[in-house]
Amino acid sequence: MAEAGNQEAGQRAGSAASAPRVWVLLDDRPGNSTQSLGLAEALGWPFETVELLFGWRSRLHNRWLGASVRGLRSGSRAKLVAPWPDLVIAAGRRTAPVGLWIKRASGGKTRLVQLGRKGADAADLFDLSVTPRYTRQLAHERRFETTGPLHRIEERKLAAEASAWTSELIDEPERSRLVLLVGGTSGQYRMNARTAERLGEAVARMALDAGAALYVSISRRTPAAAADALERALGPTRYFYRWSPSDQRNPYLAYLALGQAFVITGDSESMLVEACSMAKPVWIYPLPVRWSFRWLRFNREWVVRRAAAHRRRREQGRGSAVGLGALCARLVERGYVRPARNLDRMHFDLIERGLALRFGTEAPKAGTFSVDDELQKVAEAVRELMEPG
Fold first, then answer.
1. C-alpha to C-alpha distance for 68 and 81, rounded to whole angstroms
2. Crossing angle of helices 269-276 and 343-352, rounded to 10°
3. What is the pLDDT of residues 127-185, one digit of tens each?
4. Cβ atoms 68, 62 nearer than 8 A
5. Does CATH place domain 155-289+343-369 in 3.90.850.10?
């Protein structure tokens, strides 16, 4: 049986008897779990979480796995039993075949909502796919595009964390508070000791000029050498948090609640979304793009451009069903080649809306980040999906 999950949100929607049965599939990626749980809580229905553990077969391409549980370890397979849910919410590439298998096992009655670039790339397989615009997925009637990833920030959680951490974090209430949130190396960006040193020196000057107390948090993607270099370059800070998987006391939510301004590395789309939802000044600090990403993007874009051109010709009643263009189109449509995500587009959207600034820019504008509204719009789309008939 699926394990009981957080059902507090369901109390806002009336009795559980009138609500659909909802499963949230969770993998071991916190970013995926945050999106899925955030949407489930926004719906206001009771839900159950199913924590999945994956074996080596999960590394195979989703098109090869199809609707299957072959990527799961046996213990996780045993959790997937009837009665089947009315709705499955999941994020991430590896959960997608499992959701499709549940839909098939239910005789097609289960509705699937898949989140994320790699899991929801084939929108025709799901009842609703949700992807950020910067991932540049093909338009589809079942695709909902957002500015960034969905988040799970709630006022009551922020208030509770602020209350729990205030005495430890703040000893000078009248002093302004600047928060630095650091991501790290990813498929697109590189974070090494030299980059971290430059970041630390720049933010230390910023805090000194503003007379602000500095609060810092690194993430699981921050290399140890980069973290050390950052700490040395920053000098004395009010609180420097080093992420650890075993640490149960993470001040991140307290930082969001108590911080008055933020500097965030540009690789960290979830942290950017969450900080911008605070309606406080947010500066985006750029990280160097990896050479390998530039090379892969060049090759991907070559295929994507030809696929797009072939698609336009076919829509106009021209073009052949065979040939190089047709091959490129099939590669993109089946997910073997994905458009390179463009986080610069997300940064541009945030800056254009007055919700964030490029690092070094003065006079931040006040604003209310619309991702909160987007979360509610996605939730409304799911409710419409679940309406009878």
1. 14
2. 10
3. 999 999 888 887 889 999 998 899 888 889 999 999 999 999 998 888 999 999 999 99
4. no
5. no
For the entire predicted model, the pTM comes to 0.81
CATH architecture of 3-147+374-385: 3-Layer(aba) Sandwich (3.40)
Nearest one of 101, 128, 102, 125 to 114, comparing CA atoms = 128
Provide the token pair at 86.
């009315």
In this structure, are residues 230 and 200 in contact, taking their beta carbons and an 8 Å threshold?
yes
271 burial type by CB count under 10 A (0-12 exposed, 13-18 middle, 19+ buried): buried
Q: Name the strands in the sheet holding 357-358, side by side, starting at the edge strand that comes first in the sequence.
A: 239-241, 213-217, 177-181, 261-265, 282-285, 357-358
Phi, psi (deg, nearest 5) at residue 322: -125, 170
d(CA 174, CA 200): 24
Distance CA 386, CA 389 (A): 9
Residues 115 and 35: beta-carbon distance below 8 Å: yes
Structure tokens at 243: 């992420």
- CB contact burial 116-141 (16+ within 10 A = b; e otherwise): bbbbbbbbebbbbbbbbebbbbbeee
64 burial type by CB count under 10 A (0-12 exposed, 13-18 middle, 19+ buried): exposed
The span from the CA of 272 to the CA of 277, in Å, is 9
CA atoms within 13 A on the CB side of 180: 30
- Segment 102-135, tens digit of pLDDT: 999 999 999 999 999 888 888 899 999 999 988 8
Sequence-distant (6+) residues with CB within 8 A of 348 are: none
Tell me if 166 sits within 8 A of 368, measured CB to CB.
no
User: Which residues partner with 275 through β-bridges?
Assistant: none
Give dist(CA 40, CA 45) in Å, integer.
7
Query: How many Å apart are CA 303 and CA 300, to the nearest integer?
Result: 5
- Asked if the domains at 3-147+374-385 and 155-289+343-369 fall in one CATH topology, the answer is yes
**pLDDT, average across residues 268-278:** 90
Question: What is the residue extent of each domain of the chain?
Answer: 3-147+374-385, 155-289+343-369, 291-333
